[in-house]
Amino acid sequence: MHQVMPIDMEKDLLDANRKLAAENHDLLGRSGVRSFDLMGSIGSGKTLLIQRLCESMGKKGVRCGAVLGDVMGDDDYKRISALGIPAVNLNTGKECHLDAHLTEHALEGIDLGSLDVLFIENVGNLVCPADFPLGTDSRIVVISVTEGDDMVRKHPLIFKEADIIVINKSDLASIMEVDVNILVSDARTVKPSAEVVITNAKTGEGVQDLIRALGI
């Protein structure tokens, strides 16, 4: 009996999150907003990628906004909002991931009618966010070559949830003695249907490829 209860409670929690995620997705869809959940480790480059994407798409008249999720602090929020990009800071406290309920409240702080695209930066890790969809159109996992060429094999579940897999900081591959081809091969093995994009967010290399993968 004691072993059954935690399983039931977890199922109820995940079911409730999926229901709220569906409601978030409906809201974003009715508002005409394309939405993307960016997952990945701390330091993988999620925030800078959001910046580059918003800058590039903004030049084409695409109106972008962002929700910046973290355990504590507002550093990422300050970086993005300083560029004139509509943004909301979202702290989880002790939680290691965003969920649909937190996302629902964040959406209340955004004028969705003024946006075409919304990026939601999840809390930085490759484990917890996998089980908690937020209601976005697509899920993106960002991995940096600085994490090693075995990270996909070590964290297959989150990559299975990804529609797009980004391999970032490609310029550091040789310095880190990391074979990018291994990461690409592992990504395509774990999730054959996912788009795999190689980027260097620092220089903007690969950002246009990522925009095409987003379908924008």
The helicity comes to: 40-55%
Unreliable residue stretches: 1-5
What is the structural class?
alpha/beta
User: What fraction of residues sit in β-strands?
Assistant: 15-25%
Separation, N- and C-terminal Cα atoms? 50 Å
CATH C-level class: Alpha Beta
Tally of strands:
7
Write down the secondary-structure element order: HEHEHEHEEHHEHHEH
Strands of the largest sheet, in order across it? Answer: 3-2-4-1-5-6-7
Quick recap of the structure?
This protein is 41% helix and 19% strand.
Characterise this structure:
It is a single chain. The protein is of the alpha/beta class and 216 residues long. It has one domain (4-214): Rossmann fold, CATH 3.40.50. It contains nine helices and seven strands. It has a seven-stranded parallel sheet, with helices on both faces. Helix 3 links the parallel strand 2 (64-70) and strand 3 (87-91). Helix 1 runs parallel beside helix 4. Mean pLDDT is 95; it is low at 1-5.
Write out key terms for the chains shown.
9 helices; alpha/beta; single chain; 7 strands; 216 residues; globular; Rossmann fold; 41% helix; seven-stranded parallel sheet
